[in-house]
Amino acid sequence: MDETKFLARQFETNRPHLRAIAYRMLGSLSEAEDAVQESWLKLSRADVEGVANLGGWLTTVVARVCLDHLRRRRSRREEPLEPDEPELPAGPEADPEHEAAMADAVGLALLVVLQTLAPAERVAFVLHDMFDLPFDEIAPILGRTPATTRQLASRARRRVQGAPRTPDVDLARRRQIVDAFLAASRGGRFEDLLAVLDPGIVVRPDAAAVRAGAPGEIRGADAVARFFLGRATGARPALVDGAVGAVVAPQGRLFLALGFTIEDGWITAIEAIADPERLRRLDLAIL
Q1: If we measure between CA atoms, which residue out of 26, 87, 244, 50 comes closest to residue 18?
Q2: pTM given for the model
């Protein structure tokens, strides 16, 4: 009982912080409260004796709860409707001063923009840009590498800051590069593969991909080209969390996703994802 009371006090200390995170991610006070309450239920059932930073642990939990909620919300939409209006913090049980401060701090315009972001982009942006979490702490929440998480936050930041809508052109160019990579791999054209690979390229397969037969990390254009030579016969270009990538889905069953990092017209990194849970959390669209 004493331990439960201690955890409850610690949770109440962290509640305002968790509520602020959830509200920015979900744009709804009631849903934010539900997410915070779910994080309490997870805390009350978890063994946290070895957790050195309970606040960080709770931040991770509430972020994952919000991410799951955003993905469910996205999957339920059957039509491309305008973003829902954010729910203003209000209510008979709320503290008016606190709610007004929260509304002012977030801003309705920002909440509207945030609701146009893909779930992973929104989580990466909110946790990094608004709560200063480092990318290596956000990456496990999203099931991504720190480099990919940085890209997600960067794309979100451009949207939030109202950057000119040039990504469509950029997306088309990246699609050309990925298509060239896949075609060269299928055709066994070594020199054509080298033509799109940065000399310092690195390929990082996850543990599931390694168990399925992929080697560990591969570095250098020559080694990467030799590995992929003739291997992409079943790969199809796809949007992977909004970025151009590729998937392998024999008989409609998703087996592998490839995320490409492209800089200055070169493929500088490839992430191979085969873990079923990580694949389930990806936002994918076949091109």
Answers
A1: 26
A2: 0.51
